[in-house]
């Protein structure tokens, strides 16, 4: 019971726009797990540049409870001038109420100076149903995993530029579909799509999509290619309504 309460406290700590964290979801046995990653990539839209970024992830699993913390930092200088500075932290607790059905609590905080976002904080809950989890292959190393989720979240945003500032407080619905295919122990493909409308103004919505294919080189070392697309039909003034990013990276698990 103490371990359960400890894990729930970890999953409820206050920590950085909703990043697509479905792509980060993994199956684990009981215990602690660590992951380090590094990316080099190209982006177009509000962030038109090359970039280098790194991140860290901590998972804690015990029984039907799985909690994880993800932190990511991106920084760039060009001609001795800072051109990018953003970071986010996401904490999530997931509890399997009955088989294939999870209750989830998450918190997130973020800043991104490149789009004038000084602060964004999220607090939300969701319910996840995992109707398909099918193993295949001669040694059952292949896996087809499909899930759907829906819930709600409170969102606070603070934008500031040289001439003005803007704050918003609102509630958004947040639904997503997720598909993962493990072709074998080393090769994996994942795709996730979010839809996030404003509860009060349904025409104000965001769509997020992320795709990843990864290849295992050694037991604890993987390389991957990631694409992400974010569309906001009512962006802040002076900000484009889309962001596209293509990155290549590697991960170390221990």
Description:
By secondary structure, the protein is mainly β. The protein has a single domain, classed as monomeric porin ompg (Porin). The chain has one helix at 2-12, and strands at 31-45, 49-62, 65-78, 81-98, 101-112, 117-136, 142-160, 165-182, 187-197, 205-218, 221-232, 242-253. Strands 1-2-3-4-5-6-7-8-9-10-11-12 form a twelve-stranded antiparallel barrel. Strand 8 and strand 9 (187-197) form a beta hairpin. It is globular and about 60 Å long. 21% of the residues are buried. Residues 1-20 have low confidence and may be disordered.
Notable features of this structure?
disordered N terminus; 12 strands; Porin; 1 helix; globular; 254 residues; mainly beta; 12-stranded antiparallel barrel
Short structural description:
The chain is mainly β and 254 residues long. The protein contains one helix and twelve strands.
